[in-house]
Amino acid sequence: MDSFYRMKISLGRVTVELESHDKQWLEEKEKTLLGTLLSDPSSVAKLIDKSDNTKSGAGIDTSDSTLTINEFQRKYIAPKNFSRPTIALFLVYFLEKLKQADSISTNDVRDAFKSIAYPKYNTINYTDVLNQLKSKGYLNKIDGNWRLTITGIDYILSEIPSE
What we know:
Elements: E1 5-11, E2 14-20, H1 23-38, H2 41-48, H3 69-77, H4 84-98, H5 106-115, H6 126-135, E3 139-142, E4 145-148, H7 150-159
Antiparallel strand pairs: 1-2, 3-4
């Protein structure tokens, strides 16, 4: 089995996670990212200043862990007519980023659909839905648990309207 490498860099209210099976690629990205950040000290100072609560651009405030799954669904999923796989992707995002679940199983996704009262949630083939997302590069399955990829996170953030 291949090794899987993960790196997390936090500066104030901004966190960047890098994941790869290629250790050399991960190390190159780390150097590039840190080199870019450290080349502009004023930008780093803004990132570290936690007292600045302004939002710029689109995104989901991952610091609000009090948001319930139903509130998340009403705010981010319901306004758009998303397909089942996209809804599943949003729910994995909710579980991983907002509820900070260490592991997300297929049953966790089924329970999330049940929690938002998705019609006929019990007839959905969740393995198939999640594998569709994996084939698009939005999710990875590691040791039997689902994890978002950078592509999956980018897709979700691109679907969130600016506030």
